[in-house]
Design brief:
By secondary structure, the protein is an alpha+beta fold. It is 34% helix and 26% strand. About 5% of the residues have low confidence.
Length: 155
């Protein structure tokens, strides 16, 4: 692995951009060696989906775009950040039984902790905010197929 890898994409604050954000991040991670069909990739896909959805839904038209940044550092940490220009920080909403939304950050925080990572929210210099998740980089080992194993007979 290189010392530091990073990728970024800026998208319009539109619901259609959520799937573009997911595809960008999963594709980038695949280029960096994480297969798309792993549990870790699914977790990252869900985190990006929730972060991008929040950036679109909760900026109330005050952030025309949002940016998704992905970085992998030499210490084996994957950082996923979504930045928008709306100044209001996310708020935890009371969990009402009939509520259709408001659980995104709870889900993100739980997923991050479950993977051994963390979530945080920071203000930007421009007056917006970045919601980021840092996870340990865990690329699954390639499974040895039965055919490969049969070809490796010990002398």
């Amino acid at each position: 692995m290189a010392d530091h890898l990073e990728a970024s994409i800026t998208l319009p604050s539109d619901p259609a951009s959520v799937s573009a954000a997911r595809a960008h991040v999963v594709g980038t991670l695949a280029e960096w060696g994480m297969p798309e069909d792993t549990e870790v990739s699914d977790t990252v896909r869900l985190i990006v989906s929730e972060l991008a959805t929040n950036a679109v839904q909760h900026t109330l038209g005050q952030s025309p775009t949002f940016t998704v940044d992905v970085a992998l550092d030499r210490d084996g940490r994957l950082c996923i950040g979504v930045t928008d220009s709306h100044p209001r920080f996310p708020r935890r909403l009371p969990a009402a039984v009939q509520q259709d939304n408001g659980r995104g950050l709870v889900i993100i925080r739980w997923l991050a902790v479950e993977c051994g990572g963390r979530m945080r929210v920071r203000p930007t210099r421009e007056g917006g905010k970045t919601v980021s998740v840092v996870l340990p980089w865990t690329v699954p080992a390639v499974a040895v197929t039965a055919v490969e194993a049969a070809g490796r007979q010990e002398p």
